[in-house]
Amino acid sequence: MQKLIVGNLKMNMENLSQRDTYGKDFLEEFKQMKTKNHVAVCPPMIYLEYFYKLLNKTGVSIGAQDCFWELYGSYTGNTSPKTIKSIGAQFVIVGHSERRQYNHETDEDVARKVLMALRVELMPIVCVGYNSGGEEIDNVKEQVEFIVKNFSQDEIENIIFAYEPVWAIGSGKTPTTDDVHTMIMYIRSIIAATHGKECAEGVGILYGGSVVAENVTDLCTKTYADGVLVGGASLSPRKFAQIVRMLN
């Protein structure tokens, strides 16, 4: 089955020189690569068009790291999902733990962004995981249920979930494959409770948190994840390419 491998570059590349160096190295790694999987990279918003033009003939898709919950209007500093779509993006990450933590985004905020992303045919990657307070499994249940109960089955089938244990992000530590598998199956059970087993089995669920070439095979094959959301390792085109090759 085809996997989705998404690189989240976060707030890096603070100048054009770093952007161009990354783009050159990325193109060198991926221009001749043949993969059965779907690869996407999510650069800083300001560089979205640059990466689309650079990579649109390589088979690598482009995504945004966030969007706003309206398509247009007086919302200074925010970016419309319609604008993101018009540039050529296919995906948008919403509800990342860093957005929830630093920008105080709620489940309601995330759902509103998902709605607008779907409206312009952007595929949202909804991040779920430990937030603050209580047990992780309770946080995941609350976050997934809020999306599942507010969207139809047809809409849910166009949403990707990404399970990210916050303590693993950037730590170099990952949960056991049994733990990841258990959480992925738990997320599917929440979807199934509202929209049925067939729908739940068709929804893409990624794992994110300290993904590297050395652990990506086990994280996908032993956990039945549909792919990975890669953070730190995606900042090196060589390391990101190694992750993609490991899943070929």
Question: What does this protein structure show overall?
Answer:
α3 links the parallel β3 and β4 (91-94). By secondary structure, the protein is α/β, with parallel strands linked by helices. Helices cover 45% and strands 15% of the residues. Strands 1-2-3-4-5-6-7-8 form an 8-stranded parallel barrel, surrounded by 7 helices. The longest helix has 19 residues, at 177-195. The mean pLDDT is 94.
For the biggest sheet, the summary is: 8 strands, parallel, barrel
Radius of gyration: 17 Å
H/E element sequence: EHEHEHEHHEHHEHHEHEH
Give the strand line-up of the largest sheet. Answer: 1-2-3-4-5-6-7-8
Strand content: 5-15%
Low-confidence stretches: none
pLDDT averaged residue by residue? 94
> What gap, in angstroms, lies between the N and C termini?
11 Å
Query: Assembly type of the shown chains?
Result: single chain
Which structural category fits the helices and strands? Answer: alpha/beta
State the helical fraction: 40-55%
Note the overall shape.
Answer: globular
Strands, helices and their partners?
Blueprint: E1 4-8, H1 16-30, E2 38-42, H2 48-55, E3 61-64, H3 81-87, E4 91-94, H4 97-102, H5 107-119, E5 123-128, H6 136-150, H7 153-156, E6 160-163, H8 177-195, H9 197-202, E7 205-208, H10 213-221, E8 227-230, H11 237-246
Parallel strand pairs: 1-2, 1-8, 2-3, 3-4, 4-5, 5-6, 6-7, 7-8
Which key terms come to mind for this protein?
alpha/beta, 248 residues, eight-stranded parallel β-barrel
